[in-house]
Amino acid sequence: MGLLSLLTGLPLAPVRGVIALGRVIQERVETEMHDPASVRRDLEAAEQARERGEISAREEARVQQEALDRMTTEPDSPGAGKE
């Protein structure tokens, strides 16, 4: 029975691999998005851009709010039904 299931499941192996890769990428992105060091880098970059006059105070405030939102929301668990 093991050989039969192996032979019938073999054509789906690439699909399973792509799905597994997608899950790994999703986990990595969520980890990076909620990493305090990443948020701090974004805030520092916005502050420096504001000092150089590249963005307005309103845009800097928007970046700060987005960073705060990222830190206060829980990361989605992988495979939690966001399809």
Question: Can you describe what's shown?
Answer:
- Mean pLDDT is 86; it is low at 78-83.
- 73% of the residues lie in helices and 0% in strands.
- Helix 3 (36-51) runs antiparallel to helix 4.
- The protein has a domain at 36-72.
- It has helices at residues 2-9, 13-33, 36-51, 57-72.
- With 83 residues, the chain is an all-alpha fold.
- It has four helices and no strands.
- The chain is rod-shaped, with a radius of gyration of 21 Å.
- This is Gas vesicle protein G.
- Residues 32-73 have a biased composition (Basic and acidic residues).
- Residues 32-83 are annotated as: Disordered.
- It comes from Prauserella flavalba.
The total count of helices amounts to: 4
Oligomer: single chain
Using the alpha-carbon principal axes, give the shape. Answer: rod-shaped
Main beta sheet strand tally, sense and closure = none
Helix content: over 70%
- Compute the number of strand runs: 0
**Mean pLDDT across all amino acids:** 86
Separation of the first and last Cα atoms: 33 Å
Q: Provide the β-strand percentage band.
A: under 5%
Succession of helices and strands: HHHH
Please tell me how large the radius of gyration is: 21 Å
Structural class: mainly alpha
Contiguous low-pLDDT stretches (5 residues minimum) are: 78-83
Write the layout of secondary structure elements.
Blueprint: H1 2-9, H2 13-33, H3 36-51, H4 57-72
Helix pairs in contact: 3-4
